[in-house]
Structure formats: structure tokens, C-alpha cells
Amino acid sequence: MNTQYAMVQGKQVTYTVTRLPNDQIELDPNNPRVQYLVGLMAGTTTQAKLDELIWAKDQAKALAQSIFQNGGVREAIIVQPMGGKYRVREGNTRLVCNRHLAEQYPGDQRFAMIPAHVFEQNLTEEDIAVMLADFHVAGKIKWDAYEQGKHIHDLFHVYGKTYDWLSDHLRMSKSKISEHLSAYKATTDFLQVHPVPANIKKFSLFQELMKKKDLRARYDESAEFRQKIYGWLDKDRISDSRQMRSLPDILQNPQAEKALDTHGFEEAAKILITNDPSRGSDLFHAVKVATEALKAAPASDIQDLKGGNAQKLIMLRNLKRSLEDISTLAGITL
After folding, report:
1. What's the predicted TM-score (pTM) here?
2. Which helix H or strand E contains 8, and what residues bound it?
């Protein structure tokens, strides 16, 4: 073991670098990764249940495979002494993966212990929140979108961090921070009405909604529109953030909006494509772009044509010939 120092919120704190046996460490019941799921349960959450919730995440299985290939955990977890054991403050998923590998490979010393940085009790909850932001919002080991949103919400509302602090510390624009805060509130409101664990993943849909100024304003101002959004998401009428990007166009087409209500995005998209083939065809998207460019042709290009620019003239003639060929194949007259 050796003692080192770290700067946390302007103060120097000591920690010990060591390796700890798996059974001397307990998971954090306030772990942001499973806090919502824990909240759905009545009574005290056991260590076994916390382990189950974390292991159920897809990322945990992938991380365990990576740890196995690396021959053990490389990134030290952060723990604090608590009640005769050490409680994880950062690295709950790594601990769970290491435990499962130890069970799968009994006697394999690579997984019998885990590297840890042991901080004494001089770290506050705010210090921990800032450290977690460093690791999992601004850092390379990023949490899921909902978990990042919740953490930004806590830094702002619980610990009083300003937009300037958040922007500088998280290396994120203020508009992006605003999107996270608004999307977290919207997702939390939605989860209160539809408390299904899988609905956490719909944070990204609310985040996409908050990027669109008109949609965001309508969502904030109209309870009726909020209920529509809730219904579409609850019934998976909209199930992907890319689909949310098309919502403004759907709302401008009563027929498409009705199809979204009754069948879902795919049927609504078919109606939009019927009205605008460029949405569903690379060819007609190119035709639309070219038509708009031709309508706005700059005077300099027109003068070049008047002046006999041979290459530009050839390109226009090739375009004309291609249109004639397509009309012949299709048996139509342009």
C-alpha cells in the first residue's frame, strides 16, 4: 500500500493505493446507475439485489469480457471505509464484473482481488458527485444518457453548480447542459406516469425533442401535447431518436399524425414519403437538391454558360440526357 494525494474541489485529500478482496467491499445503494430501479422497490435493497440489477445491464457483460481479456481490472475503484467494510463510491460495475469472474473462475487470483483507491471519510457527497462527473460525464467511461442527465441535474439542483461551472468542468456547451436538464425533467415526469424500468432508455428521445425549439416550447406549454408525447412513447409509436427528428414534419401533416396515433412512425413516414419522395429515395433527394440549386443558380455560372464554358455546358447536356433516358425507361413524358 502507498499513500497518494488528489485535488478535489480545490482541497488536497489523501488516498491509499491497494488491492482488496471482493468480499471486503460492498456496493453503493445510492449508485446512480441503478438509483431509479432501486427506488421502484419497496424496503431495503440487499447487496445481492444490487449485484443483480447492475449485472443485468448489457454494458456489464461487455465490461466483464474486457476485464477477462485484460487479465483483471485495470482501472482502480474508489472506496471509503464504512461499517467495517469498504463501500464503493466509483466503480460499482467493475466490482460486480470482477465478482462474477471470480465465481466463474474459482481460484484464479486475477479476479480474487481488485485494485482500489481508499479515501478516508474526509470526502463529502458533493466531492463524490464531482469526481463521478469527472469519470462518467466528462471522462472516457461514460454512463448511459439518462444517468448522465440525472448527474447533471444533481450537480445543478442539489449541489448548486452554475451553468458556467458545469460548462467548464464537463466540457459541454450551456445549450447542451440545458438539453440534459430539460430532458431529465421530462423523462422523470414520464416515468412517474409510466414507471417501467425499460422507459429509462427513452431519455434519448426526450433529449432529441428538447433540441427542437418549437417542439420544446409546445411540450412545455401544452399539457395536451405532453400527453400525446407520453402516449406515443409508451406505445412505442416513436422508439428511436432519429424518428423524433421527423416529428415536426409529421405534426404538419394531419394524415401523417393520425397514422402515428394509430399505427406508429413507419406508417406516418410512408405518408410523408408519398408527399415528398426525396425522403425515401437517394435519387429523388438528389433531384430535389439539384432542382433547388438550379433555381438559385448564381449569375456567375449563367455568365459562364453565355460565354461558352464548354465543361459546364457538357454537364447540363448530360443532365438533360439522363432525364430523357429515365423518362423513356419509365414510359412517361416530362
Report:
1. 0.80
2. strand 2-8
If you search the block for the grid coordinates 464548354, which residue do you land on? 310
Whether the predicted pLDDT of 42 surpasses 70? no
Rg (the chain; Cα; Å): 28
CATH code for the domain defined by 2-123? 3.90.1530.10
Q: Residue by residue, what is the 3-state secondary structure of 215-279?
A: HHHHHHHCHHHHHHHHHHHHCCCCCCHHHHHCHHHHHCCHHHHHHHHHCCHHHHHHHHHHHCHHH
Instruction: Check the CA dihedral 101-105-108-112 and report its sign.
Output: positive
pLDDT at 12: 86
Q: Domain coordinates of the chain in residue numbers?
A: 2-123, 134-238, 246-293, 297-334
pLDDT band for position 197 (cuts 50, 70, 90): confident
**Alpha-carbon gap, residue 37 to 318, rounded angstroms:** 62
Taking only the tens place, the pLDDT of each residue in 214-227 is: 999 999 999 999 99
DSSP letters spanning 102-165: HHHSTT-TTTTEEEEEEE-TT--HHHHHHHHHHHHTSSSSPPPHHHHHHHHHHHHHTS---HHH
Could you tell me what percent of the chain has a pLDDT over 90? 75
Phi–psi pair at 86, nearest 5 degrees: -115, 130
Q: 121: pLDDT confidence band, cut at 50, 70 and 90?
A: low
Please tell me the distance from the alpha carbon of residue 259 to that of residue 247, in angstroms, as a whole number: 12
User: If 0-12 CB within 10 Å is exposed, 13-18 middle and 19+ buried, where does residue 294 land?
Assistant: exposed
DSSP assignment string, 170-225 = HT--HHHHHHHHHHHHHHHHHHHHS--GGGGGGHHHHHHHHHSHHHHHHHHH-HHH
The answer to whether residues 22 and 113 touch, using CB atoms and an 8 Å cutoff, is yes
**pLDDT of 59:** 85
